[in-house]
Amino acid sequence: MRYTRLGTSGLVVSKLSFGAGSLGIGETLPGLVKNIDQPTANNIVACLIDGGVNLFDTSNKYVEGKSEETLGKALGARRKDVIVASKCGLPVGPLITDKGLSARHVIEACEKSLKRLGTDWLDVYYAHIFDKETPLEETARAFEQLVQQGKVRYVAVSNWPAWMLARYVGIQERYNYTPTICNQVYYSIVGRDIERDLVPMAQATGMGIVVYSPMAGGFLSGKYERDKPPPPGTRRATFTLAPKLDMEQAFRVVDLLKDLAPKYGVTPGAVALAWTMQKPFVNSVTFGISREAQLTENLKAADITLSNDDAAQIDKLTAIEPALR
Ligand SMILES: NC(=O)c1ccc[n+]([C@@H]2O[C@H](COP(=O)([O-])OP(=O)(O)OC[C@H]3O[C@@H](n4cnc5c(N)ncnc54)[C@H](OP(=O)(O)O)[C@@H]3O)[C@@H](O)[C@H]2O)c1
Fold first, then answer.
1. Ligand 1 center from residue 301 Cα (angstroms)
2. Nearest residue (CA) to ligand 1, atom 21
């Protein structure tokens, strides 16, 4: 396993991190069904820690809070050995106050996450989404209060546009608040939008980038076929909000991943993970699984390095035009 500092912070994280969004039994969003029970989660977490993964990603939204509960129990006494990141902001209940980034919700959500995880502190606490209604100053103050109370070590955002993040960072600087260390965003071989704006921002400012859905929700594993419906039991069979894909391009990518995989002795999905980990602007790549067997395959991505030629071949298939020339 390779490690890196998260943004310009001193926090050292594994380049491959685990998306605990799949732990627990239930639904995160309609059709996004999760099915990993506690004993299986215990095995998965033990295997990840043994494999060198030290960053575990969850949210109060995942599996209706059961992801946090299951992760907390699976970590047990080893919680102190790892970095736990959780999030708030997405709707988690019927009330108008059960979502967003108001001080009221952020503080309440954090306290509930700590309870579910069975821990006294979150290493990284993300604003899971931006909130157009709440003043950025209020959100920044709420996160700072959590840091001052010792409930949160590092603050972060997820899915924020560059312009809003730039304003937010300015506010944190003005009030001498703990700085935002990273933005967690979607990025994969077939989803490279962040290269237009967020990556240049990160390169200019040192803002960290943690990537989610690096296999495009499982598409890059190579298990979907042209002109065939998604196999039963796969994410795309039930979940329509999976990352939008240019299907012809995505299948061309999968063809290449399948060609390259035997050379490295791994699966096509592991080649996709390795490509993403090799991007210099990516601090950590947060992958998911739906069953234990996928874990061993995916972890192998940490042991390989794609040659420059192979990485460039993949790159060429989905390179995007820069926004400004
Ligand atoms: N901040 C955010 O807004 C946000 C959003 C999304 C995710 N996340 C985080 O990122 C994590 C990962 O997201 P993701 O699950 O979308 O990532 P992903 O790694 O792109 O997709 C994971 C899915 O791909 C399939 N898969 C994984 N390994 C496989 C293998 N070896 N062979 C075949 N299929 C395989 C599984 O789905 P099936 O077997 O069910 O097909 C698995 O659940 C989440 O758990 C969460 O922590 C954050």
1. 15
2. 217
| CATH number reported for the structural domain that contains residue 72 in this entry | 3.20.20.100
Q: What is the pTM of this model?
A: 0.95
Residue at 186 is within a domain: yes
> Using alpha carbons only, what angle is made at residue 98 by residues 179 and 208, rounded to the nearest 5 degrees?
25
DSSP codes of every residue in 170-188: HHHHHTTPPPEEEEEEE-B
Our answer to whether residue 126 is catalytic in this structure is: no
State the Cα–Cα distance between residues 275 and 29, nearest whole angstrom: 29
**In residues, how long is the chain?**
325
Please check whether residue 325 lies inside any domain of the structure.
no
Residues 165-221 pLDDT 10s:
999 999 999 999 999 999 999 999 999 999 999 999 999 999 999 999 999 999 999
Residues 307 and 236: beta-carbon distance below 8 Å: no
- Give 99 Cα–ligand 1 centroid separation in angstroms: 24
